[in-house]
UniProtKB/TrEMBL annotation, chains A, B:
Single GO biological process annotation from the record: L-threonine catabolic process
SUPFAM superfamilies hit by this protein: Tryptophan synthase beta subunit-like PLP-dependent enzymes (SSF53686)
Superkingdom of the source species: Bacteria
An MF annotation (GO) of this entry: pyridoxal phosphate binding
Name of this protein: Threonine synthase
Amino acid sequence: MSAFVTALICPRCQLQHDPQTIQNLCVACQSPLLVEYDLDRLRTAVSKETISERTPTMWRYREFLPVGDPTQIVSLGEGFTPLLNISSITRAWGLTQVWLKDDGLNPTGSFKARGASCGISKAKEFGIRAVALPTAGNAGGAWACYGAAAGIRVHVAMPKDAPAINQLECRLYGADLQLVDGLISDAGKKIAQGIREHGWFDAATLKEPYRIEGKKTLGLEIAEQLGWQLPDAIVYPAGGGVGIIGIWRALKQLRAIGWVSGKLPRLIVVQAEGCAPLVKAFEEQQPESEFWPNARTFASGLRVPKALGDFLVLQAVRETGGTALAVSDADCARMMRLLAERAGIFAAPEGAATLAAVERLQEEGKIFSDERVVIINTGSALKYPEAMAEALAGQM
Amino acid sequence: MSAFVTALICPRCQLQHDPQTIQNLCVACQSPLLVEYDLDRLRTAVSKETISERTPTMWRYREFLPVGDPTQIVSLGEGFTPLLNISSITRAWGLTQVWLKDDGLNPTGSFKARGASCGISKAKEFGIRAVALPTAGNAGGAWACYGAAAGIRVHVAMPKDAPAINQLECRLYGADLQLVDGLISDAGKKIAQGIREHGWFDAATLKEPYRIEGKKTLGLEIAEQLGWQLPDAIVYPAGGGVGIIGIWRALKQLRAIGWVSGKLPRLIVVQAEGCAPLVKAFEEQQPESEFWPNARTFASGLRVPKALGDFLVLQAVRETGGTALAVSDADCARMMRLLAERAGIFAAPEGAATLAAVERLQEEGKIFSDERVVIINTGSALKYPEAMAEALAGQM
C-alpha cells in the first residue's frame, strides 16, 4: 500500500473505507470514493527538486499517487505532456498568456492513459486478475493497453457505432471486446452482468477510486511546468469530469504542502451544446445534474448524459469561482482547424472546445488580457478520423 | 547560426559548403551534406548535468543541433520519448535486456516529427517561406505540422493511394497537398517541378542537411536514458535510413567528447522482404544499393526502393560490425500483435519489424543473451489503421 494513503473517504456522507482492501463505491451511499493522503508526512518525504530530477512521466509524482510498491507500477511513458504556449492564436483576442496542455501525446493518444496507468497499477498491486468497463471509446483503448502491459484481463463493452479505431485498438491489445446495440448505458448493463456472473473488478468511471488519482497528475504537471505558479484559469472539457475533479484535488494538495500559494485557478468546465448537463446544473444552481436526453455532439468524449461525479465537478467550479459553458460543434470544428493551421496542434474535438470557450469568455469579459490561462487538450485528433473529416468538410 | 556548427561536408567528395547560407545537396557530386560541429568547444559549453535539468524534448540537446537562435526553435514536445523495457517478451528467446524506444509518442505520432522540428526550425532561421517534399505519408504530416506552427507554407505531394490519415492531417494543417497518380517517385517529380517554377525550398529526405540532425537526437536520448552507457546493438527499420545515419553520428559525437566510451553498438538494419535494397547490397558487399523494382510491403515506411543515403547506412552498419536483414510482413503483423497483447505497445509495422529481427538474430546466434539491445519503434499504430486491421485478420 502507498506510504502516504490514509483513507478512502466518501465525499457525500463522509464514511471512511479501508484503503488496504479492494473498494468500489461508498458502501453506504454509492458515491465515488476519494483517496486521502498524509500530507504532513508527504511534505517531508519529497521535494520539488527531487521530483524535477525524475523521469518525465506522471509517476514522478509517485508520493501523490496510491501505489506503494514501485514494482507494481505499469508505465508506458504516460504524462508529463507538453505545455504549449498558444498565444500566437489568442493574441488576436487580446490574450497573451494562454497555454495548451497537449495530452494527445500520451500512450493510446489520449489522457485516458493517466487514469488507466494508475487504475491498472493499483489493481495489479491488489492482485486483481480481470477488470471490466463500459466505454464510449478512448477509455476502453487505454484500459485494454495497460491491462495488456500488466497481464490483467480487460473486458470492455462499447456501443457498436463507437469509432472503428477504438474497436481495433481494444482487439489488438487482446481485450475481450463486446459490441452493444445501444448507448454507453446499455454497454454498462452488459458489463454489470459480467461483473455479477464472473466477479470481474468494476473499473467504470469513478466506480473505483484510483483512475481519478492518475488524472490528478494533470494538475501537478501544470503547476510544475509553470514553475510552481498557479495560472488564473484552467479550462477543461467535461464528459465524466474526472480530470477536473483530479486537477482540483491536486492543486489543493499542493497548496496544503506549501508548494504553491495564493488563490486556486478558476476551474472552467466546457461541454457541447448537444449534451450540457453540468452547464445546465451550474446555471440553475443545482448541486447535481439531471440526465440529458438525446445527447448529441461529434465530440464523443463529451457525450455523457449524467456523470457520477457531477456534484464534485460543480463543487470544484463553484469553490474556485469558475464557470460552465457549452459550445457548438461548429465552433469545435473551427478551433480544430485553427489549432492545426496556426499552431501545428492536432487536437481532439473536446480539446478544441476549450479554445472556443476561451474565445467566448474573453468576449463576455470573463477572462482578462493579463490572465494566465491553461486549456486542456484531452487527446490527439488521430483518434478522431471522422471528426477530422467533418472539420475539414466544414459541414458542422 | 548555431554556435557550434563549423561546416557542411560532403561525405562522398569531402567538399565543404558554407553553413551560413541555404544548402541542399553537394554542388559537386549531388550527395547529401552532413553537419560538422566544433566538438572541443561543445564539450566545454555543456555538461550531462545541464542537459538532465532541461525540458524533456529533443531540444535539450540544442548544442548538438544546428539552430543557433533559440527563438527560432519550433517545438511541440517532440523527442525524449520513453525507452521501455520489453524483456517480458524477449525473455522467452533468452534475451533479458531489450528495450523499445517508443517514438510513436511524438507529435504527429511518428519519429518524422524529429526531422521536421529541426528542418523547419532551421528553415525558419534562414527566413525560408515555403518548403516542398514528396512523401509516402508520415513525413508529409510531420512537415505540414511544423510548417503550420512556424508559419511556413508546406507543399506536399503523395501517391493518391497513400493512407487516408496522412491526407487528412496534411489538409487539416493547411498544407498544399497534391495527390499523384503513381509512386513516391512520381510525387517527387511533381515537387521538383514546383521547386523549379516557384522557388520552394527542397525538403525531400536528405536533400537538405538538417532533417538528419533532428533524427540524431534518437541516439543522444538512448545514451542518456541508459545512463550514458552504450547498448550492444541498436536495431532500426530502414526506409530512407536517415535515423540510423543520425544515430551513428550522434554516438560518434558523444564518444568524441567523452560522454560515452567503448565500442559503438552494432547498428542493425531491418527491411521488408518485399523491399530490401540495403540488405541485398550488404550481403553482396556493395557500397551502394540498387533500385528495388516492384517494392511491396504493408510497412509503408519501408517501401523505399533506393535511398539517397544508402552508402552512409551501409557504412554505418559495416563500421560497427552490424548486419542487415529482411523480415516478412507476416512476421511484422505477428510482432504488432505480440507487442500490443504482451506489453501494451502500439507499434507501427516498421517498429514491429525490429522485434521480428531480434527474434531471428537470436536464433542465428547473432545476438547473445547477456547483450543490451535497443529496438526503435518509429511510429504509433494509430497512423496505420489498415495495417492494424490486417494484423488482426491474420491475413498476412
